[in-house]
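Running co-folding for adenosine-5'-diphosphate.
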Amino acid sequence: MVYCVGMTGGIGCGKTTVARFFAELGAGVVDTDDISRELTAADGAAMPAIRATFGADFVDASGALVRSKMRQLIFTDPAEKAQLEAILHPLIRTQVEAALAQVRASYALLVVPLLLETRQYLPLVQRVLVVDCPEADQIARTMARSQLSKAEVQSIMCNQLTRSERVRQADDLLVNDGALETLHSAVQKLHLDYLVRASAGHH
Ligand code: ADP
């Protein structure tokens, strides 16, 4: 199995940005959010079960999940959220393992927003990389990028570990509190370190 770095961080911390930097440098990036989106895109593998469980109202004309409607439902109802997760999580897991098996790069970067909360992907990774940033940046960046309100962003943050707990569990830390160029050089350094670790086969 390929050497694998697990990456996590709170919403809006910069995980997607960091993953793109690593991919440009040649790492084999596998992103559970991307996989989840594919599973719920038009005719995605999760759509038959979603239609059967939640009804045709949650499926648009193209066969894709109506995300805004589902987001609303699961924000207010933990049982519905659990049902959605019961459909998605096993499918995501299977896709992650298939994607990692296909990585031909020197090492893989597995992006899992709730890596340290659910802990189910920890056995697949040799190292944990945490992207951290101040909460004010998290809220501002997430609101600027999505249709979410401040309350919705804060509610997502409530379901995630606190910054200090996440940072405590990190083997490597990227602090994204400045310019993107600063972040990029920090990623370059880590990339070289991961190449060495992967080729030496140590952790
Ligand atoms: P995540 O994947 O962790 O939710 P993203 O990488 O999507 O976070 O970043 C959230 C938003 O903030 C994106 O629009 C991204 O372009 C922007 N962003 C991330 N880091 C910085 C930074 N250092 N400076 C300015 N904008 C940033």
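Result summary
The CA atoms of residues 177 and 194 lie 23 Å apart.
Strands lie at 3-9, 28-31, 107-111, 127-132, 172-175.
Job closed.
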